[in-house]
Specification:
alpha/beta, 4-stranded mixed β-sheet, 13 strands, about 15% strand, globular
C-alpha cells in the first residue's frame, strides 16, 4: 500500500536540495486543498464530504492549470463547414472547440463573441439525424439525391426500399463527399450545441461550482472567460479534473477518499441492465444510431458470449467522416471490422476496452483512466462478464455534493438545451 505523504514530504520529493521547485501545477492545487483540509480539523462535526466541499469552494477556478498551456486556444469560425470543423478537431486531437462568431465586432463581449461549443458528438448526431430522416422520408430518388448532393440516383432509389440499417448506411456513407457535409456551416447546426452560447465560468467562480457543473449538470467542458477581454482564458474538462486528482495521490485528503473501494463509494452508478451494447457482427452504424437514440457517448462491442471485445465512442465517427477507402462500404462494415480498420489506419487505442472490478479503489480507477486517457471504464465480474460502467462524470460526482440553494441565480440568462436538440 502506498504511504500517505505530507505536504512537506511531497515538497521534499519534488524539490531536491538547491534546486527550484518542480512539482506539477495540479499537485500544487492538491496541496492547497490539503492546507484547507487540515485547517478544518478544528471542526470535528464536519463529515469528509463537508470538508471536501469546503476545500473546493475556497479555491477559484483561475487557479486551475491551463489546459492549452504553451499553445493557442483552438477556435472554429462560425462560417466553417462541418467538414472543416471535423478536420480542425481531428488535426488538433480534440473533441470540442468554441465557435467564434465571425460577425461579432472586435470589442464584443464573450457572450457575443462565441455562439457555442461544437463537439464531434454534436456534428455526428446531427449528421445521423439527417441520414435517418433522408432514409425514412417518402421522397423520390431525384429529390433525395439532390438533397444529399452525391448519392447516385440508383443508390438513393435503393435506399428508400432497403431495410432501415441499409438505407441509413447508404445515405450516411455518402456524407463525407456530400453537400450536406461540405457546405453546411457550423453556425447552421447551433441547435445541436449543449448550451447557447454556452455555460461559462468566470475566474472568480470556485472549484466546487466547476466540479458540480462537470458532474451533476453533465457539462463535458467549461470555458473560463476573461470578462474584461471578452475572451476564453481556459477550458476545463472532465479529463483535466481527473488528471488533477491523479496528481494528488499520497495527500491525506485524497487518500481518505480515494482508498475507498467502488462498492464502498457507490460505484458503478450505471448497472448492467442500463448499458447499451452492440454485437461484433452487427453494423458499425448501428452503434452510432444507438448512441444518438439513447443519449450516451459510447457503447461496448460484445462477442457471442456477451463479453466485451472493444468500445466505440461517438467521437469515433471521425473515422467515417475522414476515412480511407477501407471504410467506404458503410452498409456492410460490422462493428468488429470498424474497430479493426480504425486501429490499423490510425493506431487507435481508445477502442481497446479497459476494465476494473468492484473491489478496486477509486484511486485505482483514477490512475488507470488518466494513464489511458479514457472517458469511461467498464466493471467486470470474476468471470470477465460486464457488470457496470463508470465514467469520469461519475467519479467527480462522488467527490462533492450540491448544497441546498447553492447556485441561486447562477443560471439566469443561460439558454438551456433546446427542446429539439439531439445532443
Amino acid at each position: 500500500m502506498q504511504a500517505v505523504r505530507t505536504r512537506e514530504d511531497q515538497r521534499e520529493e519534488a524539490t531536491p536540495l538547491g534546486s527550484a521547485r518542480s512539482w506539477s501545477p495540479e499537485a500544487e492545487i492538491g496541496m492547497r486543498v490539503e492546507d484547507i483540509w487540515d485547517s478544518l480539523d478544528v471542526q470535528p462535526q464536519l463529515s469528509r464530504s463537508d470538508k471536501l466541499n469546503s476545500c473546493f469552494d475556497s479555491i477559484p477556478v483561475a487557479s486551475f492549470p491551463h489546459t492549452f498551456a504553451g499553445s493557442q486556444l483552438v477556435e472554429i469560425p462560425s462560417d466553417a463547414t462541418l467538414a472543416e470543423a471535423v478536420d480542425i478537431l481531428s488535426r488538433n486531437r480534440i473533441i470540442s472547440a468554441p465557435v467564434r462568431n465571425v460577425d461579432a465586432p472586435e470589442d464584443a463581449s464573450w457572450i457575443d463573441r462565441y455562439i457555442g461549443i461544437v463537439e464531434f458528438a454534436g456534428i455526428a448526431v446531427w449528421l445521423l439525424h439527417q441520414s435517418e430522416a433522408a432514409a425514412k422520408a417518402d421522397v423520390g430518388a431525384d429529390e433525395l439525391a439532390a438533397k444529399l448532393g452525391t448519392v447516385t440516383l440508383e443508390g438513393a432509389a435503393a435506399a428508400t426500399v432497403r431495410e432501415p440499417e441499409g438505407a441509413i448506411a447508404e445515405v450516411f456513407g455518402a456524407l463525407p463527399s456530400s453537400d450536406l457535409f461540405n457546405k453546411t456551416k457550423v453556425q447552421d447546426i447551433s441547435g445541436s450545441f449543449r448550451w447557447a452560447p454556452f455555460l461559462a465560468l468566470q475566474s472568480s467562480d470556485t472549484f466546487l461550482t466547476m466540479l458540480l457543473l462537470l458532474s451533476k449538470y453533465r457539462m463535458k467542458s467549461l470555458p473560463v472567460v476573461d470578462i474584461g477581454e471578452g475572451t476564453i482564458s481556459n477550458i476545463i474538462t472532465q479529463a483535466a479534473v481527473v488528471h488533477m486528482l491523479s496528481e494528488c495521490v499520497g495527500l491525506h485528503w485524497f487518500e481518505e477518499w480515494g482508498t475507498k473501494t467502488l462498492s464502498e463509494i457507490g460505484l458503478p452508478i450505471m448497472r448492467l441492465s442500463k448499458i447499451v451494447k452492440v454485437r461484433e457482427d452487427e453494423p458499425a452504424l448501428k452503434a452510432f444510431r444507438l448512441m444518438r437514440r439513447r443519449g450516451v457517448g459510447g457503447i461496448p462491442v460484445v462477442d457471442e458470449t456477451g463479453k466485451a471485445i472493444g468500445s466505440i465512442m461517438i467521437k469515433d465517427v471521425k473515422h467515417l467522416l475522414t476515412t480511407s477507402e477501407t471504410n467506404r462500404d458503410y452498409r456492410t462494415l460490422t462493428a468488429q471490422e470498424f474497430i479493426a480498420n480504425a486501429r490499423q489506419s490510425s493506431g487507435e487505442r481508445q477502442m481497446i476496452i479497459i476494465t476494473c472490478k468492484r473491489r478496486d479503489t477509486v484511486k485505482d480507477i483514477i490512475l488507470k483512466l488518466d494513464a489511458e486517457k479514457r472517458q469511461r471504464i467498464y466493471v467486470i465480474d470474476e468471470e470477465g462478464n460486464l457488470d457496470g460502467l463508470i465514467t469520469l462524470r461519475d467519479i467527480i460526482a462522488k467527490l462533492v455534493y450540491e448544497p441546498p440553494g447553492y447556485f441561486g441565480d447562477f443560471f439566469n440568462g443561460v439558454i438551456p438545451l433546446p427542446q429539439n436538440s439531439r445532443v
